Structures are given as C-alpha cells and as structure tokens.
C-alpha cells in the first residue's frame, strides 16, 4: 500500500550480480546509498522486506558498498528503533568495526550517534573496542585518530566517570602523544573534557588522580613536546573552566 510492489522488486534486484554486468557496475553502491530512504518510506514495520538486501549489501565484496552503509547505519538505527537495531544492525556494525579503514571511518564519524541509540548494557560492551580505533591500516592516516578524539569528546556523556577513567583515559593519553600536532591539539581538548566530566560528577578522587598522571607524564617529560603538551592542556583547561581555580592551583 506504500509503494507499488514491482517498484520494490526492481529495487531489491539491484543487488543481483548480473545487474552489475549488464546495467551499471556500481548499481549495488546506488542501492546501498538509497536504502535508508527506502527504509524510511516503508516504515520499521516493513523492515523485513529490506533486511536480506541490507545483509547482502553489508557483505558485498566492494568496499565502496560497505563504506556507503557504514556512513548511514546511524540514520537507519533511528528509523528502525532500539529493538530492531540491537537485533539486526549491531552485528553488521560490529563487522564494520573490523573492516578496512575506508569502511571503519564511516562508523567512526557517527560513532556517538549510533552508541547513544543503544541500551546502556549493550553500549558498555563497546568500551573494550574503542581503543582499537587508535590502530589503523596506515599510520599516516592521522585524520582517523583526529576523528576518534572528536567523537570521544561527545561519547563521554554516555558513560559513567569510572568507565571513563578505566577505558577512555588511556586512549586520550595515547592520542596526546601522537606524532601529528593536529591530533595532539584535539586530544588536549579531550583530556580537559574528561577532567570536566570527573568534577561535574563529583568524582574528585578520579579527577585528582588524572591530574597527577598528567603532571608525571607531561610536565616531567624528558622531551620538550611533552612539556609543551602540559602547557597546552593547562591553557585549554583555564579557558574552559573545567576545574575550579583552587584545584587548578
């Protein structure tokens, strides 16, 4: 009743390998690009019509097809709701996390948007995997690490101070020592955001431990880059008033 059945059949047939040879070599990519719009039109109650097609596209041999889906999986999650997302999208999302960097970046750019849609217990499972984003196929791909730092600043609100201290703190400190200055600079903002998280939630002991760690790691660093990092962190910290002046002193 929503769209003519022949039209839907034509759309679903775009994943047929024979179509790629006779119609357009990138027809599967076009299919992947349009899928969230088709899903929105059909509504979540008709997701079963598209599920098999989505899974076929998610395992396509062309990384461009998988990359297209990775960039829009957070939009599809909004359309489908939490139950269908947990059942049908999370396994595909997990697959994208282990894919090529060209596919992983699609997931990474909207990591916060996807994680916030999951239930707290399911979301907590990804704490262990976030550090995997620090490692890339090509170490020169610094924008990947920059994007990770930007996403982590948003993701902080999804986890409690103890989880932030146990898992995200290590990633932030690693990124602060990155070889690329752009990555280091956004990471200083991440460190300050973590401090703000601790003190805003009255986790003063965690905050003090973290400050002491910053002093040991950067203030007393044998390399000037480390000491410079400490100065920058202090600068960002003062401007954003992440802690009281008493604590800062």
UniProtKB/TrEMBL annotation:
<dbReference type="InterPro" id="IPR051023">
    <property type="entry name" value="PP2A_Regulatory_Subunit_A"/>
</dbReference>
<dbReference type="InterPro" id="IPR016024">
    <property type="entry name" value="ARM-type_fold"/>
</dbReference>
<dbReference type="InterPro" id="IPR011989">
    <property type="entry name" value="ARM-like"/>
</dbReference>
<keyword id="KW-0677">Repeat</keyword>
<dbReference type="GO" id="GO:0005737">
    <property type="term" value="C:cytoplasm"/>
</dbReference>
<dbReference type="GO" id="GO:0019888">
    <property type="term" value="F:protein phosphatase regulator activity"/>
</dbReference>
<protein>
    <submittedName>
        <fullName>PP4R1 phosphatase</fullName>
    </submittedName>
</protein>
């Amino acid at each position: 009743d929503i769209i003519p059945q022949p039209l839907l059949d034509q759309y679903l047939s775009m994943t047929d390998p024979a179509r790629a040879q006779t119609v357009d070599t990138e027809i599967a990519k076009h299919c992947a690009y349009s899928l969230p719009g088709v899903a929105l039109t059909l509504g979540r109650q008709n997701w079963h019509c598209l599920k098999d097609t989505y899974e076929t596209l998610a395992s396509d041999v062309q990384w461009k097809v998988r990359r297209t889906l990775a960039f829009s999986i957070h939009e599809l999650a909004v359309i489908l709701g939490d139950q269908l997302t947990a059942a049908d999208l999370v396994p595909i999302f997990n697959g994208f996390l282990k894919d090529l960097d060209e596919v992983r970046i699609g997931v990474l750019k909207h990591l916060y948007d996807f994680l916030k849609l999951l239930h707290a217990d399911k979301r907590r499972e990804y704490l262990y995997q976030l550090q995997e984003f620090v490692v890339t196929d090509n170490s020169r791909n610094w924008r990947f690490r920059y994007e990770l730092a930007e996403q982590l600043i948003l993701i902080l609100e999804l986890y409690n101070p103890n989880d932030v201290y146990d898992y995200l703190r290590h990633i932030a400190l690693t990124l602060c020592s990155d070889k690329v200055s752009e990555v280091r600079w956004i990471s200083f903002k991440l460190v300050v955001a973590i401090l703000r998280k601790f003190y805003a939630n009255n986790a003063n002991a965690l905050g003090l431990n973290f400050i002491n760690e910053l002093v040991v790691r950067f203030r007393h660093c044998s390399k000037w880059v480390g000491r410079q990092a400490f100065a920058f962190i202090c600068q960002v910290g003062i401007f954003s008033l992440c802690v009281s002046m008493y604590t800062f002193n």
